[in-house]
């Protein structure tokens, strides 16, 4: 199956867990988003999966922006993807909004990164006109992840019909952009989710820290 399996460690994991992933996962459809401090380490090693960052700066390139990490730096460190607009950043921490995510999207694309653009139930307003235009011009570089807030970290998976309806809606609205599903995905329900035709893959949070689970995901 060629669907994308993306994993988001959030602010979790360490070098030894990363080593065990690099030692045992050989899969070109697997994307691992690690905390930014680990990107260069994994980027230099012979990893056999795709490396991602979990965010990038609204600022481009280089400059006097203490604590920021630009898309260019992420690319140079060895990542191919960046996750943007995760709901934990949009809502809980209030770090991001439609405009900052749009800037970051531009920065990422200009730096040569691919993007997993997260949206929640409110995808109508998160995918505003300018964002849609950018997606339209970069359909081979941007993947949307539909992650209903009600499902993130809650163990409450929407019905297959609800997932299908939302993903189809996003695709209809956004030039048939590839769309993943995220929220409470685990080894037990992944087969059902990947079995939904219009779903192009999954974005996994909590369960992605467990190498045994991830191996099950990849063999499903
Ligand atoms: P979860 O998180 O798999 O722990 O629900 C998903 C996400 O936040 O991307």
Bin the strand percentage: 15-25%
Number of helices: 10
- By CATH, the topology is TIM Barrel
Assembly of the depicted chains: single chain
Radius of gyration computed on alpha carbons: 16 Å
CATH class: Alpha Beta
Question: Topology, please?
Answer:
Layout: E1 4-8, H1 15-24, E2 26-33, H2 39-44, E3 48-53, H3 71-77, E4 81-84, H4 87-92, H5 98-110, E5 114-119, H6 123-126, H7 129-137, E6 142-146, H8 160-173, E7 179-182, H9 190-194, E8 201-204, H10 211-219
Parallel strand pairs: 1-2, 1-8, 2-3, 3-4, 4-5, 5-6, 6-7, 7-8
The structure holds 2-phosphoglycolic acid.
Structure report:
- Helices cover 38% and strands 19% of the residues.
- The chain is an alpha/beta fold and 220 residues long.
- It has one domain: TIM Barrel (Alpha-Beta Barrel).
- The protein is globular and about 45 Å long.
- The relative contact order is 0.16.
Explain briefly what this protein structure is.
With 220 residues, the chain is an alpha/beta fold.
Features:
220 residues, 8-stranded parallel beta barrel, 10 helices, alpha/beta, single chain, binds 2-phosphoglycolic acid, TIM Barrel
């Amino acid at each position: 199956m060629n669907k994308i399996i993306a994993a988001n460690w959030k602010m979790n994991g360490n070098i030894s867990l990363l080593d065990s992933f690099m030692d045992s996962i050989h899969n070109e459809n697997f994307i691992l988003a690690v905390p930014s401090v680990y990107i260069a380490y994994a980027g230099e090693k012979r990893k056999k999966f795709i490396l991602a960052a979990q965010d990038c700066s609204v600022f481009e390139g280089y400059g006097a922006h203490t604590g920021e990490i630009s898309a260019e730096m992420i690319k140079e460190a060895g990542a191919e993807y960046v996750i943007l607009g995760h709901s934990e950043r949009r809502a809980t921490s209030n770090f991001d909004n439609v405009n900052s995510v749009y800037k970051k999207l531009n920065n990422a694309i200009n730096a040569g990164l691919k993007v997993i653009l997260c949206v929640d139930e409110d995808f109508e307003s998160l995918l505003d006109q300018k964002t849609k235009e950018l997606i339209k011009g970069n359909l081979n570089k941007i993947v949307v992840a539909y992650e209903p807030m009600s499902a993130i970290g809650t163990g409450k998976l929407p019905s297959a019909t609800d997932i299908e309806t939302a993903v189809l809606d996003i695709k209809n609205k956004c030039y048939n952009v590839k769309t993943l599903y995220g929220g409470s995905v685990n080894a037990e329900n992944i087969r059902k989710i990947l079995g939904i035709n219009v779903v192009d893959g999954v974005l996994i949070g909590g369960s992605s820290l467990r190498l045994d689970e991830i191996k099950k995901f990849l063999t499903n």
